[in-house]
Specification:
The protein is an alpha/beta fold. It contains 31 helices and 18 strands. The protein has a seven-stranded mixed beta sheet, sandwiched between helices. It is globular.
């Protein structure tokens, strides 16, 4: 097949790729055509489903070179994070699955063992791959197996502490291991921190000596940055080359360095990878790429290079096709700015996700009061503790799934010191297309054990604003405000408030107390209507603050025949568990049934699909509650014990 034929028959070359061996056979000219076809394929497919566009457009040539040099799956290719693995999926025979990318029955947006033998790790949280790679390399060395281990790590992931813990151990072990630093200057948004500044000074158009000259001039003309950088890189001791070359930093650890190389030049990357493979010890290959490369809307998107549009978008413009709606994140962002206008002590922290979490709006108005710490949730929590010790009230905005990584810091660095830090957890509960590693369903259980910590779960925009203000007003303990992804729920006013508990619906009969947590408020109302049709009376309440359990909620439970909790979090240790314990402690013997998310790895799909699978719909809940309360009706009344009868007489 000639290059001319490939050019005329767009996509024909890509159609011949069913596995890595097909890429190995191609000429340099064919690889250039294939790279273009892969970009067209990615844009066409992801524009219909949503997904991670920018990261994958940036690693096309890099991934092709990896599969030409290494023999997957015998050689292990690990992606940190997994959202840059779409090209890897294409090369390993999964093109057909992209029609339903991140949808029920389609392929995952991250590596997935069930999909392919070429996928090994599924954890899509950043900064983990080097630790996996260290363990794999040690295992293969101990077993006497000659297998290569390759970890692709973004420069954003290198802002995470786990990477540096792993690098220290990788250098000590000395096992063969190739670390590809995909340096595009961005994680979601531009990469933050001293390491990022160092790497950014070395980004290149190929020609290493030209890079050296450019950075040398930049350092010489920047007295504020230049002198500290010289000192950090031991320029006095090792000379100007070490001050402008990253090998000083990595080789001081005992890890050889190759690069920087143009990550969009297959031949250059392939040459560097072959040298690294043959070295016999740990090697870093520094590949400079451009996020969103080859697609103008992504390249021109300053916010995040079309990192991950969540739904279909227009190919020409990169704009989402769905009509804009008010998201939970938008409500939080607006209210945080309003609070900051009133309180100069309020500051924001985020972990490389200023735009996705809404903190960016605060940063635009008060840039000096927002801190992006990079992909370093543990540091974010303890840095927030320091800010609180210094007299400020930090608001730490992260995805719910990512705060799990900082449990120890929240427990001992923040809560034990009774510090006023507010953690705002976006994407709480079942989030859908990103799959099990991104479901924020653990927070109410995991953080529910932290002494003194208070957790709020708003049900709509009004209560989100209200509970955020209440959280920031707490000055002697940490607080969490959690909300789901997507469009904010319709406002649901309360009939009345009992302590902190909102009563949303009540009946003359007090058969069931339905505790609807957070965004399940509307579901609770629908269940009440269905139960009324069967003659049962339901009181629907939103506890608003789910930890600690309000005493008023226990009192309300005592006045009903059955208590049912419905929550978008794991059942074990969740709100239902906590309420049941509080009822036992108060000697309230009303039966309680808890509905929530089983502690399991639930597959990707839409939020609605997964909730339906779990029986967390109004129809399912109403059916369950009807069965439970009718079962109570059918139970024979036990005769009173003699001592009870005597007491009544």
């Amino acid at each position: 097949m000639s290059v001319e034929e490939d050019t005329v028959n767009q996509g024909r070359l890509l159609a011949t790729v069913r596995g890595p061996q097909d890429v190995k056979r191609m000429s340099g000219e064919q690889l250039d055509i294939l790279a273009a076809e892969i970009r067209d394929f990615l844009i066409a497919k992801v524009s219909r489903t949503g997904g991670h566009v920018g990261p994958n457009l940036g690693v096309v040539e890099l991934t092709l070179a990896m599969h030409r040099v290494f023999d997957s799956p015998r050689d292990r290719l690990l992606f940190d994070t997994g959202h840059q693995a779409y090209v890897h999926k294409i090369v390993t025979g999964r093109q057909d699955g992209f029609d339903k990318l991140r949808q029920r029955g389609g392929i995952s947006g991250y590596p997935n063992q069930a999909e392919s033998e070429h996928d090994l790790i599924e954890n899509s949280h950043a900064s983990t791959a080097l630790s996996y790679a260290d363990g794999l390399a040690k295992a293969y060395a101990l077993r006497g197996e000659k297998r290569s281990v390759v970890a692709v790590v973004g420069d954003g992931a290198l802002t995470g502490g786990m990477c540096w813990e792993a690098l220290n151990n990788i250098a000590t072990s000395g096992n063969p291991l190739v670390i590809v630093v995909n340096d595009n200057g961005r994680s979601y948004s531009p990469t933050i921190g001293g390491l990022a500044d160092h790497l950014s000074s070395l980004r290149l158009n190929p020609g290493y000596e030209k890079v050296l000259d450019t950075v040398k001039d930049a350092l010489g003309n920047t007295p504020f940055v230049g002198k500290p950088m010289y000192e950090v890189l031991h320029a006095v001791k090792k000379g100007i080359k070490d001050a402008v070359a990253p090998q000083a930093m990595f080789e001081d650890l005992g890890i050889k360095y190759v690069g920087p190389v143009d990550g969009h030049d297959v031949a250059a990357v392939e040459s560097a990878l072959r040298a690294a493979k043959n070295f016999g010890g740990p090697v870093i290959v520094h590949a400079v790429t451009r996020k969103g490369y080859g697609y103008r809307p992504a390249e021109e998107d300053e916010a995040d290079c079309l990192h991950g549009p969540g739904s279909a978008f227009d190919i020409e413009t990169g704009k989402l096709l769905a009509a804009p709606s008010v998201k939970w994140t938008h409500v939080f962002a607006d209210e945080l700015v309003a609070i900051a206008d009133e309180r100069p002590d309020v500051v924001g922290i985020t972990a490389a996700m200023a735009e996705p979490t809404g903190i960016a709006k605060l940063a635009r108005k008060y840039p000096e009061r927002v801190y992006d710490v990079g992909i370093a949730e543990q540091h974010a929590a303890t840095s927030a503790a320091g800010l609180a010790l210094g007299g400020l009230h930090p608001v730490v905005a992260v995805y719910a799934t990512f705060l799990n990584r900082a449990f120890d810091q929240v427990l001992l660095d923040v809560a034990m010191h009774r510090l006023p830090v507010t953690f705002v957890l976006d994407r709480a509960g079942i989030t859908g297309p990103d799959g099990p590693s991104h479901y924020g369903m653990w927070d109410m259980s995991v953080f529910g054990v932290v002494p003194g910590l208070r957790i709020a779960a708003p049900r709509d925009a009004v209560t989100l604003r209200e509970e955020l203000r209440e959280a920031v007003a707490v000055d002697d303990a940490p607080t969490i405000v959690r909300f789901p992804t997507g469009t904010v729920a319709v406002d649901l006013p309360a009939l009345r408030r009992v302590g902190p508990v909102d009563v949303l619906a009540e009946s003359a009969r007090t058969d069931v107390l339905l505790v609807a947590v957070g965004a399940f408020g509307q579901l609770g109302m629908e269940v009440a209507v269905r139960l009324a049709e069967h003659g049962y009376g339901v009181t629907v309440v939103d506890p608003r603050w789910v930890r600690p359990v309000p005493a008023e909620l226990v009192e309300l439970a005592a006045g009903h025949r059955l208590v049912v909790t419905v929550e978008d979090g794991v059942r074990v240790g969740g709100v239902g568990d906590a309420l049941a314990q509080a009822m036992r402690d108060a000697d309230v013997r009303v039966p309680l049934k808890d509905l929530g998310v089983p502690a399991d790895w639930h597959p990707h799909g839409t939020r609605a699909q997964i909730l339906a699978d779990l029986g967390l719909t109004a129809q399912d809940v109403a059916r369950d509650v009807t069965g439970w309360i009718s079962g109570l009706d059918a139970q024979p009344v036990e005769p009173a014990r003699p001592d009870e009868a005597a007491a009544k007489n």
